Structure formats: structure tokens, C-alpha cells
Amino acid sequence: MSHAQWASVMGLTQSEYDKTFQGLRPLSLLSVSLICDSLDITLEGLLVGELDFDLIRTRYIGQSGRLPERYSVAAFSKRRSIVNFLESLENFRGWEYSEQVRRFFQIDPTALSDLDGSINVLFFRDISAFLRKRGFSDSEFYSIGLFSSVTAADSSFAKVLSTLKTPQAIYEHAFVDLISFHERNHSYKVLELDKTHCKVESKSNQDIARALNVKTLGSRDTCIYRSGVMASTLSLVGLPEAHVHEEACEHNGDASCRFVVQYDHIQKSNLRKLELVH
Ligand SMILES: [Zn+2]
What we know:
alpha+beta; H-NOX domain; 3 domains; four-stranded antiparallel β-sheet; two-stranded antiparallel ribbon; 15 helices; elongated; binds zinc ion
């Protein structure tokens, strides 16, 4: 980029730019902020200093659609989940907040057009830690998970589940047959399943954990988020959400995560409505 172009990006006249370049005029915060805007990054991201500069370079020369390298290796989650995080943040905190988070993590909007494209689980651990540092509570992480009934409403996952008639059948199909299409970071095993609840065990896939150089995949907060996603599964087919609690967690030192999904509050009238819809 030429000096004239830099001057324009930084909101300076050529003379102001020349003085700044020669160290005769201080670089204003406004100019730094304008540079960040033009590179689609945040000032905070610049100060933290963990930016993917190669990504900035390739996007600047017109190659869009890539995710940061950190999130591109051993990638077995769906990009639809990034959209879920960002759209729920927009819903709960407003567009500007969501946009700042997107830019901090250098998520190119073009990369989100492919909802079934992949991203690794480190992204969800990082964004959860970022939000937790800014005061997000357990119930907010759960609510972000619940929001997936909105962002996944048009998914093939929802279409398949909408053909089923009972919560029991929906969770059996979701955990036994469909989950591996949604994410492959964990292996799932249904431990209990009846008309009132489903208990499912989840274990980190060790091949992926080794590739990402971590012991377990995700974090306590991503498990709370996953609880909300599991609860929202019934909402995908028009039923009230289930209630989910995690009775054991790998991130608390347990051998596996165990989620109890309860749906005994779903009334026959709810199910009859389901019959009418389908
Ligand atoms: Zn867990």
C-alpha cells in the first residue's frame, strides 16, 4: 500500500502523515483505530498481539473466506456453531458487541457462508474464555446453546428430527445416528433412555486432542454451552426445550462428561401438536 493510501486510511493529510511517519507527530488513537477498521481487526486484538498476520495479508490482497490458522487444524466442528455464537451475542448484547467479538477472533464473514464448513474446537474454548472474562455467566452460556434452535432451524439435522414423534425417539436418533455429522470432537454413548429422560456420555476424541496439543477438548464453559444445545434439540421440532444438567465433566477431572436430558415436562398436548404439524 502506498503512503498516500496509508494517509487516507489513517484519516490524515499527506503532511500530517509525513510528520507521523518521521516521528515528528504522535500517532493518534483515532488513526490506530482507523487502521484496525480497515484491516477488520480490533484494537484489543492488536494489543493482545495474537493476530494471524498471514490471514490479514491474504485478505488484504483479496483472498477471503479463510479462518485463522489456529482454528483450521484438526477441525471437526461446524461453522454453523460460530454463527450461533455471533447471532446469539447480537441478540443478547447488540450488533456492535457481536461485531467486536467477530473481529477480535478474525472471523471473515465470507467464511461463514459455508455453514457446514469446518472449524476446530479451540475456537469455542477461546471464545468462551473471552466471554467469561467479560462477565458471562453459566446461564448465559446455556442460553447461547439454546439459541441454536434458531440458527439450526433450517439445518438438515432439524429436518431429519422433525419426522420423529416423541422426545425419546428424537434424542435416540440425535445421539446415536446424527451427532457425528454435527461434530466429531467427542464420542457419544447413550447410557439411559426412556419416556422421561436420556443420559448420554461424552468423551473427548483423543486423536483430535493430541493434534491440538490439549488433554481434553473444550472447557467447562463449552460443556455448559453444549448442555444448552442439547436442551434446544426439542425446540427444533416445535416442542418446549428439555432441561439438561451435566452430572460429571472431564473438565472437573471426571473420566467422561455425562449429560442428563429431562423431558418429562413435555405434555401429551405438546406431542399431539407435533402430530398435527407433521
Ligand atoms: Zn463436560
